[in-house]
Every structure is written in structure tokens, then in C-alpha cells.
Amino acid sequence: MQTLLFLILFPIIIACLLLFVKRTALRYVVVILSALAIGGVSIYLLVRYVFAGAVYFAVPSGTVDPLMLVIEMGLALFIIYMGVKFKNYLAIALAVVQAALLVYLETTYSGSLHVENNLFIDQFSIIMALIIGIIGSLIAVYSVRYMETYHHHHPEVRDRQRTFFFVIFIFLAAMFGLVFSNNLMWVLFFWEITTITSFLLIGYAETEEATKNAFLALVMNLLGGVAFVAALIILAATAPLSGGIDLAGVLSSGDAAVILLPAALIGFAGITKAALMPFSSWLLGAMVAPTPVSALLHSSTMVKAGVYILVRFAPVFAGTLTGFSIGLVGGLTFVLASAIAISQSNAKRVLAYSTIANLGLIAACAGVGTYMLVWAAILLILFHAIAKALLFLGTGMIEHRIGSRDIEDMEGLIVRMPRMAVMMFIGMAGMFLAPFGMLISKWAAIEAFVQAPFGLIFIAILAYGSAVTVFFWAKWMGKLVAVTRERERVEKGILEEPWAPLYLLTGLVVAATLLFPLVSSLLVEPYVLAIYGVTARMAQANVAIMILMMALLLVLPVSFMLFKRSAKHLPAYMGGRPATPGRQFVGSLGITREAQTRNYYLNDYFGEAKLFRPGLAVCTALIIVSWILAGVAL
Amino acid sequence: MTWTWLIGAVLFLILAPLAGGLIAGIDRKITARMQGRVGPPLLQPFYDVGKLFEKERVVVTTAQNFYVLAYLVFIALAGALFFAGGDLLLTVFAFTLAHVFLVLGAYAVHSPYSHIGAERELIQLMAYEPMVILVAVGLYMVTNSFYVAEIAAVVVPAILYLPGVFIGLAIVLTIKFRKSPFDISTSHHAHQEIVKGITTEFSGPTLGTIEIAHWYETVFLLGLVYLFFAWNPVIGVVAVALTYLAEIFVDNTTARVRWQAALKTGWFAALLGIVNLAILSYMTLGGA
Hints:
Helix content of chain B: over 70%
Strand order of the largest sheet of chain A: 1-2
Strand content of chain B: under 5%
Oligomer: heterodimer
Largest interface: A-B, 61 and 65 residues
Number of helices of chain A: 28
Strand content of chain A: under 5%
Number of helices of chain B: 11
Order of helices and strands of chain B: HHEHHHHHHHHH
Distance between the termini of chain A: 37 Å
Shape of chain A: globular
Number of strands of chain B: 1
Distance between the termini of chain B: 31 Å
């Protein structure tokens, strides 16, 4: 139990400490040391509890509960203050409604708000803790130098780095709290903290756009927060049947009809936090935040809280039409966001759409909720967190070196920033190619949906979705690997972000794939087994083939040595005109011109304008349907 | 049981280039006859590839060799996996990996013509991928297995349950065989290719490697067709031959279309597959 408390409380202490650290060098030392501590303890957590199954801890909550309520009211006041300051009345209204509902809950059902075991740990929580503790720490380390460079490039932005790192570490603490809490009131508390931290970090630049997008994220997440409180009220009101606000109690409650509506409401909160359609716009807007924020909050951890809660409630959703509708919201989000990603040339927007897509896929798995799908969903959460964190951090570094985050400007990165290009390459391969983790999970999802009732619609979604996914990743990869002549290397900068987090994340992408059978058998399978009584796993023969493929991928670059000496080099074919290796050719009248290439974005077919609105409409309808169906069951 | 899978894989690795080259030879012969020509000798594809390997190694960038080698290695691996009786979905994904390597090779040379070829190859990939996944799913729904060995051993005529899926596959096979009207990334026909699209900058042994990889893939694709008729080997072989003949016929009677049409057709084929599978799952729900 001390381990859990350490992971929740230690980042808070560091956060407060960082408020007083002004110099970057000192801040760097503090962040590195605390990252080592958090990462180390997360690994200790794994070693300590990996074979223990689900363990519950009776944490005395006598003083904690009122304290949380006070903080929540404080946060509501803060939102109201910010809302008044920036004239965003919707945020004020939602904050007031949520606070009022909370007070109502506390006063009316105070008898049902006692939970024996406030904290717990099981294999799923361990996986989440490892993501937060290791990937989160790596991003924190990276962001110290990144923010230094960021302010160097953006002198117009007020330097609020102390607040920035305070918020980052508070966020880490909240994430640990969220995945360790068995008391749903606590989950809600940490949930709201992540909402606020996200709001603060998106608005960091204090420009009009940043503030606007921060409020968009705030409003949409508050909407989910209100639904969450509503769910808690229903649970508390039906405490004897539903299990009250005890997460384990609710999940083991025999009365499926009673808990379905609260589950749908909490699922809705998950949908808002995971930025599924119709709430995707907040995540796209959140890309104005500094890149480490996008890596930490908006791809690898905070949005994962949304799907975390959905996967937790997957057994409740399984076999219900409510769950099926939620799954459809996820599925449609997956295919539409993947398709729209084709039309984007801004690297961060491509990453954002891909994140939304994968969160959608995880939600689809959770909504349908069979044991195989839960297995696939947890693996998707893990693999996506690693690869996407790497890609965001890489994009951030590239942007600082080449001064652009446009994919077209990344042409020839293999020549200009070879190390970075190789790491981006591996990260992208990790997102969509065999034998990397994400593909294993998608494959598992296909096999699982075949066996699920009415799974065919999801098969169709996955078939089209995978095809468009290959398209937008491969064309980006193509830009990176183009060997451009006569371009100088720009890998080294005056202010340089640390490479170590990138190396480690790249290593993790490969290692996670190689160690995948171990991760599955030690963590994911026991969790699924404990809940469903059966578990999925990958066949031994297929594991062997995946490892063989991985080995081949690692060995094949050696072949570069075979080709080195032998070949004669010629410039590319330019329609028969005299050409140079730098892609210059002699045009008409003897004028030398340069040939340029641009990728396809197929805007007429996959543009935002074409696909976003229909997605919003259908997904909104599906969410309403999920509530009606859950209400009917009640 | 334990070692038979290895035999299949090894036989494929050795014999598939021979069979693939021979099929290409027959293809060229029949094509010539359809066009009222005599056509080259049956073994011409082997002479051609042999000659390519005697040519000087000329490259735009050294890296292109790497991508093409990776293309061949993963095509061979994927095909071997299929003929070893392995997981059909994994085979499909391994083929995707291989094709991505070819596309990257075309990007790497940084040439305008091969760049367009690479983009178009990706559009083709996007066009046929959904249908190929649905083939695996369809065969699973009939045979209850994703393993090629078990699908092939089933005594049920899969084609009777999956006519829509089969037609869908036949449509996208045109793309995969690089035949008209969907040979948008590179074509065997001189009359509709200004420059050689995705293979523009590949020459000599590198181009020969791509050709051999294509032979491997041809044999795999015909193997995929065979699975629909696996309950009766004789009918199976005949069906495979007829399917390929139909592809040649389509190739010779159509002209290249634009990429939009290729994408729409590929996705329409997948829709056909989905409708087929929807009816199938409705029937099995009601019947069983």
C-alpha cells in the first residue's frame, strides 16, 4: 500500500518543490531524479504485485473525503473565475451544475458514500501505472529542455515554466490516483484534476487560440464530469443493489439492469475524455499546447483514462445494446478519424487524428466487451502509449530543428536528421505494421469481433480502417526516407532536447513487441481470466513467426554493407532531360529548374469538411441511443 | 503433423519462383494470342530476369537496394507462411509489410516518376486491403479457422457460401496482379505507361528482384483462390486456371482507369464481400 501512496503523493511533493525552482539546470536535476524515483517505484510495483491478483487496501478516508470535496469546490470556483475572466459562460454553468450535483450527492446520500477499500491494485492498474510511471517520467524529463527551447523560439510567450512543471507533476499524481482508486468518488476527484490540468496546459501560450481551445477542452470534459456525478448519484441511490460507489462492488453486482445506466453515463464521461466523436474537436484543439503536453496528456496517458474506465466497465457493457452503441461510437470514430488523417499535412494533427482513431478502436473493443476484445483493448492501450509518445516527442524535436511541423517539410529527414528519422520510422512502424504491437492488437480485435454477435459491422470498420491507416502512415514514412542530396545535417542544435528519452522509447517500441507474450501472460491474461473466467492468448506458432519477423527486421539493415561499394550512382530520371543528383533538370530555354514532389492528401474524398460533420451527427445519435437503451433496461 | 508445415514452406520458397515465372510465360503467350501475335517463348520471363541480373548495378541511392531486398524477403516469408498452413490474417499483414517496403524504396530514390508511382501503389493498397481482410474473415466463418492448413482440409465447398466474397476477391486480384484497368502504379503494357511508375528508378538486379517477388506473390494469390475450392482439388485447380484466364482477358480488354475508379472499385468489392458475409451470418444465426 505504501507503494501506491508513494506514487500518488511523491509527484505532489515534487510539484510543490518545482514551484520554487527557477533555474533550468536545477529543474532538470530535480525532474530527472524524481523521474528515476517514479519510474523505479512503478517497476517495483510491477515486481511486487504482478502475481498478487487484485489487492484491496482499506485506506482510512475520514479526513481525505472532506479534503477532496473542498478541493473540488475550490476547482469549481477556479473554473467560475476563469469563465468570468474569459467570458465563457458555458464553462461556468457546467461547473455550477457539477458542484450542485456533488453537494446534493454528499448531503442526500451521505450514508452510501462509505467505501471499505478506497485503493486497489490489479494487473490492469499495473499496466496503467507502468505507462504513467515510465512513459510519463520520460516525457517529463524531455520537456525540461524542450520548454527551454520553446521559450527561445517563442519569446512572445510569457515564461511560466514553474507553473508548467507544477501542473505536469500534479497531473502525474492524479493519473496514479485515478488508476489506483476503488472508490468511485476518488476516481471522479482525480478525473476532474486531470481535466483542470489539461485545461491549464492547453492554455499555456495564453494566445487567443490557446485560450479558446483550452475552454473547448474544459467544456467537453466537464460535460463528461457532470455525467460522471450523475452516475454516482444513481449508484448511491441504489446502493444495496448496485454496490454503491465501490468500483469492485459495482462490477460484481448481480443486478445488470440497475448498473447499466450509471455505466453508460460513466462510459459517456470516458467518451468525452477519450475525445471520441462527437467530442474529437477538443483533442485537435489541444495540439496548440507545447508538444510534450500533447505526448503526455493527449496521447499516452490522460485520454487513456477515458478508455481505461470504459475497459473497466466492459463486463457490464458486454452483450448489451447499450455497450454495442458505445462500441459503434468507438468504431465509427476509428474509421472516420483514420480517414481524415489522410487529408492532414500538419504532423501534430495527423498524430492527433491517429490518437482519436485508436482510442475509438479501444472503445469499440470495450463496448462490445467480450473477453478476447478486452485482452486486445488492454494491449492497444499499452502499445499505443509507447509508440505515440515517441512520435510526439520526435515531432517536437523535428519542429525545433527544421522550424516546421508540416510533413512536406520533413522530406529527406533521413539525410538531415538520420537518428531522429530512424526513430520516427520505428515509431510509425510500431503504429501500423506487422509484427509490431499495434498490429498484433488489431489482428486480435479482428479475430475477436468475428466471434462476437453482430461483430461483422466492426469487421467491416476494421477492414476499411486498417487500409486507410496504412495509407497515411506509409506516405509520411516515405517523406522521411527520401534520400535528398545536398541537404545539410541539422540534428545538433544550440539548445538541445535530451536524446535519452527518445532512445528509451524507441527501445520500448521494439522491446514491447518482443516481450509481448510475457506482458500478455503475466499481466493481461490473468486480468481477463479473473473477470471472465476464460482468457485469450496468441497461439504459440504465431508468436514464433512474429519474433522471426522482428528478428528479420533487425537484421536486414545489415544488408546496407553488401551494397556499399558495388553500385554506380546516377541522378533520378527527369523525362530524359539532363539532371543533377539534387533533382535539378535543364528545362526549356536551358533554364535549370528543380523538380518537387508533394504527397497526396485526397482532400475531396477524405477531407475534414467531408467526414467530420456526419461523424458528429451519427455518434451523437448513438450516444443518445445508448442512454435510452440503458434507461429502458432500468 | 509436426514437420509437414515445413515441407510446404520450403517447397514454396523453391518452387514458387519457377511456377510464378512459368505462369508469367503462359500469361504472355495467351496475351499475345488475344492480341493476334505469336508471343515470346514460354520461358521468356526467365530469360528476361536472367538478363537483368547480368546488367550493371546502377542506383540513384544505395538505400533503394535495401528496401527492395526487404520487399522480396517479406513477400517470400508471407507466402511461405501461407503454404506452411499458417494464420491467414498474419499472412495478409506480412504482405502489407512487404508492399510498404517496396513503396518506401520508391520514395527513397526521391524521383518524380517513382514518387507518383509510390503514391499510386499506396492507393492500390488502400483499395484492395479491406477485401483481402474480408476474404480471411469469410473463410473463417465457413471453416471456423484462420489457419490455411485447416481451411484447406475442410470438406465444405467454401465457394457456395462465399460467392460475393469470391467475386470481390476476383475484382481486387486485378489490382494485385498489376493488370489493367487497375495497373495505375506500374504496368506491364508499354502502351499505357509513360515511364515505369513505381519501378522507374529500379534497374538491373534490383528490378529482377522485384520481378521474382511478383512471381512469389502470384503463386500466393492463386493459392488464396484455391482455398475457395479446396474441398475438391481437381475443381480447385480448374477454378484457379479459369480465374487467372479471366484476369488476362480483363487485362487485354480494358484500358487503365484513374485512381479514383480503382479506389472506388476496390472498396465496392469489399462492400460486396460484407453483404455476402452479412447474409451468411444471418443464415447461420437462423439455421444453427
